[in-house]
Amino acid sequence: MRTRTAATATATAAVALLAATAVPANAAAPAAVGWSVQHGTAAATGERWTEPSGGWPSSTLVIEGELTNTGAGCYSVWTRFVYDLAPGPVRKHAEICGPGSVEVDVRQSYWITTTGSITVCRGTEDTSDCGTWRSVTTWPANRR
């Protein structure tokens, strides 16, 4: 009987904790967090935040911004994410050749154990010549 009572108390405490930490649907959206990376004649800047998706503990990490190039070469924006210590593949999200700018729009599944980085690379085929990888999961990355 004691085991059943302890289990009930633990479950009740867990539900109370989740309810206390949940963000109300009508809560004001906190400000987004800025990010920026650069390499050669290209730079990418923007904002990032998380959005609810399917309930706790999962959410969506949103990274939006712009890749700008002032030179003649080609550049691209790449991300890489690690899930529970398991690295995922690098992914290209934007590319530009010559002067101008293009949109960067990344939507990534995010859990509290996810880490991720973003960079700008010379060329559009791989990540062999890139700027510094910058974290996009250093918090706070606020809900919007």
Automatic annotation (TrEMBL):
It comes from the Bacteria. Keywords: Signal. Residues 1-27 form the signal peptide. This is Secreted protein.
